Amino acid sequence: MEAFTKLRKVVPCGVRLLSARYSNSHKEGKPAEETTPVEEPVLPFSREGDCGYSLVNDVQLPKDDRIFHAIGNTDELLCHLGVARENAIKNKHPYTDKLTRIQTMLVDIVLAISKQSTKEAFPAKNTKELEEWIIKYSKDLTPAEKYLLPGGGKVATSLHVARAVCRRAERTVSPLINEGYLDREIQVYFNRLADLLFTWARYAAKRDERSESVYTPKSESKKKPVEAKPEPSS
Fold it and tell me: pTM value?
């Protein structure tokens, strides 16, 4: 046991499994005591990733690997959509069930990313579904200005945040797609989803009777109106 304590000081990580095995074998040498079996609670942590590595598809990778960036950004988008959905439910918006549907698709994408050595098909009908929703909700909107400042109420703003995170998720899956680890349709889905979230953000602002803030360049905002010169007398 003393030798094991010295090993723990030198190699603090990766020694926990050895510790468990040693403890179990040490106990096995003792005579069995009659005890009532106690069911241990399932804890929400395992300590297996404390060394900066995690398992993905039975492969141990550092936590800053691009796989985890892609998974993490998609998961973050999933959470922001949950916030947007709760806000939309509170204001009785009609597309909340569609947000749930999109969250389900994102879980499928996370699972596809985690299977890094397997290229699984992502049906194009999922993207087609998004396009149909964009067309439906765009009918109630005027043409968008060149650049809108995120805002327009709590629901609209949460959808704008989700849109920005969606673009980041799209960028992080691109290398995996370009190298053939993921179906390219996943990138198309992210691209179209960002367009849908932008459409819903504008729709939410209109439904909540909030105005949209349009970006005005600083140079234009400081321009003075040109005064009309008097016509020369003849």
Answer: 0.74
